[in-house]
């Protein structure tokens, strides 16, 4: 499960900051990419692979975790928590971000009903 969580953190932080870059904010992307590198180093220490890590296999796992890895992951998560706050402020507090995203793609309640919104689309438009 630990490797899956690391993967999810890596992918989501990169996806969100790539979106920020698409609307004109490149710094969050660069910061997230730096954090992603740290996460990929954990993979490399376990499996000697940075991409497409294959830790979980039929019947168990590939091998035991290296000594000190869990300690280093805990240290990373303690620092990463403050980095997430910085990335959020840098993105959502950014004047350009707000100009390009606030009130874009809004729909009325009637349009929601007429167009049959459901799931994520419905939840994203409930005010």
From TrEMBL:
SUPFAM superfamilies: HydB/Nqo4-like. PANTHER family: NADH DEHYDROGENASE [UBIQUINONE] IRON-SULFUR PROTEIN 2, MITOCHONDRIAL, NADH-UBIQUINONE OXIDOREDUCTASE 49 KDA SUBUNIT. This is NADH-quinone oxidoreductase subunit D domain-containing protein. Gene3D superfamilies: Cytochrome-c3 Hydrogenase, chain B. One of its GO terms (molecular function) is quinone binding. InterPro entries: NADH_Q_OxRdtase_suD, NDH1_su_D/H, NiFe-Hase_large. GO terms for cellular component: mitochondrion. Belongs to the complex I 49 kDa subunit family. It holds the Pfam family Complex1_49kDa. Keywords: NAD, Translocase.
């Amino acid at each position: 499960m630990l490797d899956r969580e690391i993967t999810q953190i890596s992918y989501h932080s990169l996806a969100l900051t790539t979106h920020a870059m698409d609307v004109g904010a490149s710094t969050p992307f660069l910061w997230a990419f730096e954090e992603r590198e740290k996460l990929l180093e954990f993979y490399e220490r376990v499996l000697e692979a940075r991409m497409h890590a294959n830790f979980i296999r039929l019947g168990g796992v590939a091998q035991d975790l290296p000594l000190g890895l869990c300690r280093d992951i805990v240290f990373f998560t303690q620092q990463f928590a403050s980095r997430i706050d910085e990335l959020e402020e840098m993105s959502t507090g950014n004047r350009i971000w707000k100009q390009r995203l606030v009130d874009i793609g809004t729909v009325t309640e009637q349009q929601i009903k007429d167009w049959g919104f459901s799931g994520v689309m419905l939840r994203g438009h409930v005010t």
